[in-house]
From TrEMBL:
<protein>
    <recommendedName>
        <fullName>C2H2-type domain-containing protein</fullName>
    </recommendedName>
</protein>
<feature type="region of interest" description="Disordered">
    <location>
        <begin position="77"/>
        <end position="102"/>
    </location>
</feature>
Length: 102
């Protein structure tokens, strides 16, 4: 039996919130030679995820699922967890604009 972790991104169609849910997927063969999967969240078996997940922000069920790994290719979709700290470096002088020859 193999177990893998899959992080699946979702996007809410109502408020455009983007989030990821982490699932453990167990693979095993049944006695007929078919490969089966069990999806677990926090150790609890759940149905395989599909579009229609519940948005954690607005609670609606109009979410779209992306393929696993989608957000790593589109990081701009994820809203940052915290705003970036302000840059403490004082600006001492106006930065000269560099002119690049065409
Ligand atoms: Zn929403």
């Amino acid at each position: 039996m193999e177990e893998e972790i899959r992080s699946l991104p979702f996007e809410c169609q109502e408020c455009w919130y983007v989030w990821e849910e982490e699932y453990h997927v167990r693979h095993f063969d049944d006695r007929h030679g078919n490969e089966r999967e069990i999806w677990l969240r926090s150790g609890v078996p759940v149905p395989p995820p599909s579009s229609g997940a519940i948005c954690p922000k607005c609670g609606c069920q109009h979410a779209t699922m992306f393929p696993a790994g989608y957000l790593s290719r589109h990081p701009e979709l994820m809203s940052p967890a915290e705003p970036a700290p302000p840059d403490a470096t004082p600006l001492l002088s106006p930065v000269q604009r560099r002119v690049y020859p065409l």
